[in-house]
Amino acid sequence: MESLCLYLTRSVLCFSPFYGEDFYFEIPRPFQCLSFYVYAKSMFQIRDLPVGKVAIRKEDLYKYCGKENWFQLQPVDPHSEVQGKVHLEMKLNELITENGSICQQLVVQIIACQGLPLISGQNCDPYATVTLVGPARSDQKKTKVKKKTSDPQFEETFHFEVTRSSSYKGRSHFHVEEEDIEKLEIKVELWNNGNLAQDVFLGETRVSVKILRNDHIHRAWYLLQPKGNGTKSKPDDLGSLRLKVTYTEDNVLPSACYTALRNLMLKSPDVKPISASAAHVLGDICRESVGYEALLPVVRLLLHHNRLLPFLTSVAALELENTQEANTIFRGNSLATRCIDDMMKIVGRSYLTVTLKPVLNEIFESNKTCEIDPVKLKEGDNVEVNKENLQGYVQKVFTSITQSSSSCSPLMCDVFRSLRQLASKRFPADPHVQYSAVSSFIFLRFFAVAVLSPHTFQLRAHHPEPEISRTLTLISKTIQSLGSWGSLSKNKLSSFKETYMYDFFKLFQEDECIEKVKKFLDEISSNVSKESSGVEDSFVLKEGEVHKRAQGRKRIGQKNFKKRWLRVTNQELSYHKQKGKEALCVIPVKNILSVEKLEESAFNRKNMFQVIHSEKPLYVQAGNCVETNSWIEVLSQVSRCNPGRLSTFHPSAYVGGFWLCCKETNESTPGCKPCTATLANIQLDIDCDRETERIFSFFSSSRSRLQKMEDACAGMSVYLGQQEDCSAFTIQDPKETFRTIKELGEVLDDLQAHHDLKGALTDEPGTIENPIVGKTV
Fold this sequence. Notes:
Elements: E1 2-12, E2 18-27, E3 33-40, E4 49-57, H1 61-64, E5 68-72, E6 85-96, E7 102-114, E8 126-134, E9 137-142, E10 153-164, H2 178-181, E11 185-192, E12 200-208, E13 217-223, E14 240-249, H3 259-266, H4 278-290, H5 295-304, H6 308-321, H7 335-347, H8 349-366, H9 383-402, H10 410-426, H11 433-452, H12 466-483, H13 499-505, H14 511-525, E15 540-549, E16 561-569, E17 572-576, E18 583-588, E19 594-597, E20 608-612, E21 618-621, H15 625-638, E22 648-649, E23 654-655, E24 658-659, E25 673-674, H16 688-701, H17 703-719, H18 734-761
Antiparallel strand pairs: 1-2, 1-14, 3-4, 5-14, 6-7, 6-13, 7-10, 8-9, 8-11, 11-12, 15-16, 15-21, 16-17, 17-18, 19-20, 20-21, 22-25, 23-24
Domain C2: 1-71, 82-222
GO molecular function, one term: GTPase activator activity
InterPro entries: C2_dom, C2_domain_sf, PH-like_dom_sf, PH_domain, Ras_GTPase, RASA2_PH, RasGAP_CS, RasGAP_dom
């Protein structure tokens, strides 16, 4: 598996645009070439016009890894856009003719191809042509067409006469004449069958027949090459592209090999102090080389095993110990802030989509002018109209955010609640710090960043046009200020450097805005299961019409289900005969133990869910599957902090004296299925073995730093104090940290031994069955 980070800095064409954008994505292992294309946006044609490209072969990536380089743009030629490989077998046979003469026959077998490109987004219809090329001959043969596949299996054999002899002289071995063999080659071309359209070239490879002088049978994989084997005339000066490429390849071992290192990382949240944990040590030793990039696989690993919350709480507490002023809380780039940032990007993607995508789509489609900087105004612009346009956009984004609490990921809410409690404990005299601890993440590091660069969060497909990008910048700056609890005080307006932003932001200095921010931060960070004591106002999260099953009825019968109005607030769940009528039943939120889907077979009804509380379960049927998921999400969110939440549940109902799912007769029998995890609504595809391998790679590349940290711990233990060499590390307990590092060393050595053994037992990538030819994979 490979990962790739691209950094576009600048391209020099007739203009010199500056991009400064990061891209990180997975690429398949068998790729041959990494290509970057530069396009000129066309105002009149449907498709943008290609200007040129930069292509870097896989084996050359290491030369440029981690460094910025200028690359000359090359022309974009359809015949040069090839990928994949072909498996060939060639051999020479001697044949005796009827008159006793002997001839040599070349046998070429097209076995298979792999990795052929998609055509118009679909698998191609490939076929191959096999040509024997010589000074005065060009004999071509063709395979059958294989339908809809990028990995066709041909298994077709072709015969070509290579040489002739006038008479058979009884020689046991026939040698091809030197001048003939030097001039013959086999050319294999791959094409996509276009049916009624023109066939599309997919690539070719050429093999000299002289390879068979020493081997009568040759079998190998060949990379497909551009037409003409890539020979090119000198291109025009198309400009240059400056790139920074970082390519990482992970060789993942069997899962059992990672058990020791994985367990050591998962133990990190329990280590006291947290700075002595394996996860914190990794961040410490990699800080100078890769920043806090090494923490991403740690976050993903802990997240998968539901161990992230206690780790984030501990590292945040450690940072707060070293924070002296409340107004600087969580403002720097630290181990704690980076881990929380990574967590929000992973689990908050769907939250961003629900909250921001609709309003961002509107901004992109309407594209109103919003420039309010007098210096940047164009001729004919009306600053007051622009200010009105910008205010309208900001108001929509702000409203969408402050009304989105029910969509916020439960894990994010749990983290914010911990941050709020830790901040209040650290600075008890400051009533605002509990809000700034949360807003510094949710507004400054989450929503404002997503508004500024929606394409990096998959909220938009492409980078915005310059005018829209400027609008998003102004919106993002305003949202940051609105969300910052410190900036909501009117005496903080002087913090704006730009006069035009000062004037614009004054439009939002109203108590209503402040209360909306405070209410939103309360909703995503407070324990909503508090006793109702007037501390927290009641507000509606969701309401609508459903069908509810009457309690205590038999399984069969239409009267068992009645139409009711269901209403959820932050304090209670209730159902009513009609909207606006008195509640027929009220269930305090604090009594909800679990909210899960109900099997259709329970009552022969679709789109059902159950609310399990201190009394009998409440069975509800929503109007459709979308509504079912929405009800479950809201109810799970509002009850996430309740004590005594269940770990198991019954996916069906208790009817006729037994549970329909597990057939148990005791109604109080614990559930037979695990409850949906906290991250149930987040589709996470985390490969724990791969994440642990990435952790191992970071440790391996920083072993010298790990050794220095071990020496620092030893020195502190001997001399009983902070030494000069220790300032680069966070060492609170030298003995505990030393113990962790020694254990890490043993685990890393053992894992390295597994890698060494694997390397000794397997061939290097790119080996072939016959090692004579160089252009094989």
